[in-house]
Amino acid sequence: MKKTRANIMAATKQLIIKKGYSDMTTKDIAREAQVNEATVFRQFGTKKKLLFATLEEADWIPSVNNDSFKQFQWNITKDLRLIMENYFEQVTPEIVRFSLGLRSQEIYQETLPYIQKIPSAFTELIQDYLNKMKERGELKIGNPKESAEVIFSSMIGFAFLHAYSSEDQYKIDKDAFVSHAINCFVKGLN
Predict the structure, then answer these.
(1) Distance between CA atoms of 130 and 133, rounded to whole angstroms?
(2) Distance between CA atoms of 52 and 109, rounded to whole angstroms?
(3) According to a count of CB atoms within 10 Å of the terminal CB, is the N or C end of the chain lower?
(4) What one-character-per-residue DSSP string does 117-137 give?
(5) In terms of pTM, does the model score above 0.90?
(6) What gap in Å lies between CA 43 and CA 5, rounded to an integer?
(7) Distance of CA 176 to CAs 44, 166, 170, 183, Å?
């Protein structure tokens, strides 16, 4: 029973990535999960309830917590690299495509809080880091919140722009982006 439920949610996630919420049907989900459509309804009731059960799963939401601070060396170049690499390790092109698939007009207001978890978590992490660097006298920065938003915006912009490129190209571009972005931000923050 648990395996069937997990398979249906995994199929839902894959179809959201491929088609988006609006264009996928419960028939598609059943076919992808290799179950009867009645099983989908029996397990979840409606397509929308299935979506929210899938969204509640933590496997697609990156984890950002205060343990991140234990890894920091309090060196802006090294720490920004750590933050960016952590972001790109977790926010894969698949996660971006899943997030884009949730932007259907009919559910957008309800899925928005789930979609915003990633930007909120990473922006807060960067802002807290910049605040601590300012407190330590390592940075003379006017507004850590605005700087965090600029840094995060560049990361999310890169992730969205490259969500549909090949895996090899994404990796090469990502490594170059991280190095270049860190150089720009360090110069601008100092």
Answers:
(1) 5
(2) 13
(3) N
(4) HHHHHHHHHHHHHHHHHHHTT
(5) no
(6) 7
(7) 44, 15, 10, 11
